[in-house]
């Protein structure tokens, strides 16, 4: 699928003038040259009022469709659903299997998903790894609250991945690296507990909440195993 553009009417929040802007609703990095960079650095969402020069970032749903790396990320600002089935899209791509389809509610998670899939990683396992490491970070910082975190580094040769967390009252960034063994362990857990999610149709929201649920189920399973052993 090539790119898709629509014309949007925008009322300037500064001067109240109405103008029109062409915005992408769907982009494909292998079709449109430079669109990946423009999406990642935010240029694609930048808007400037033609009458007063006020600039802002536009937020609207946009589908990032990378067929070469077999993933689609649907950025829908503030979306709250876990699953989104778009019949039109499903039909269009029914012949293409094993494509990871995700919905994300924020620009940061949009960029993160692209980074994860381009790196050839499994985002479910990354999410679980991120959650496990966030607990370590919180302990290190004396129980500080971890608001959110993103995969910010992946170095296969050095066997390392790194996450940037936003911590404490001031949302101070904190970078924590980890060895890939934690990711490999997370992947084993995901493969045994999330195989149903992997078969679900449509676009899924794979985030911290999702990982918390998997981790909870994993701990419960371990607990039951322990009890059963005691019974023997
Ligand atoms: Zn204006």
TrEMBL record:
InterPro entries: CpXC_dom. Residues 10-130 form the CpXC domain. This is CpXC domain-containing protein.
